[in-house]
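Feature request, filed as a ticket because there's no other form

It would be nice if the structure record came with a short human-readable summary line next to the tokens. Right now we just get the raw output. Example of a typical job, pasted below so the devs can see what we mean:
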Amino acid sequence: MSKSLPKQYQVAELSQSPEISALTAKLVTLQENEPFKALTLISATIADGKSAVATSLAINYARKGLRVLLVNANPFDSTNYFDKTSPTTLSAILASDDFGQMHDVVVTVNPYLDLISGDQDSLAFASVEAKLRLQQFIKIASTEYNLVLFDGPAFAGNEAGLYLSDAVGFVLIVLRRDHSKLKATDAMVTDLQSTNVEIIGSVILDR
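Raw output as currently delivered:
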């Protein structure tokens, strides 16, 4: 699955675009044919528009009446479009033996969209134990949400994106025309192919 998105990649415009609406519909259909409840959005380099796409997809899932959990899983950027703060972070959840109930760790944006925000530890996903805890978290979250969307880090210069992608299992690659670096993108795809990650497609933001 490959999709080209409009150049206005700010969330306010992008979330209203027909291209994001069509991408959302494709993901919903894909979930029906190949059931998965969690998806990581990744990019090769910073400022590719990944967070805007992740947030816009979450908004559009919610508009369809589908419950979605948007998780900030980027150790290098703690901001979020909604300017909301959740009671805890993904790093803290992965460091805990028992994170409690879902309503204890999320902040509600609207009746269909919840958020986990905050600073992340760049090493939070690196251990086998963290991978198992993340997969257990996804299993629990999947009973309440149609989709858990992880807004992951750019691959450039760190391994956090690879660890996160490997734990979640499904990724959507975000590229930005005339900005994403071909060499970095090739290296990212090679790294992903060395794991059991399934790349379900890519989206390209026009510059």
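Something like this underneath would help us a lot:
Strands lie at 2-5, 38-43, 68-72, 107-110, 113-116, 147-154, 170-176, 198-205.
The domain at 2-205 is CATH 3.40.50.300 (Rossmann fold).
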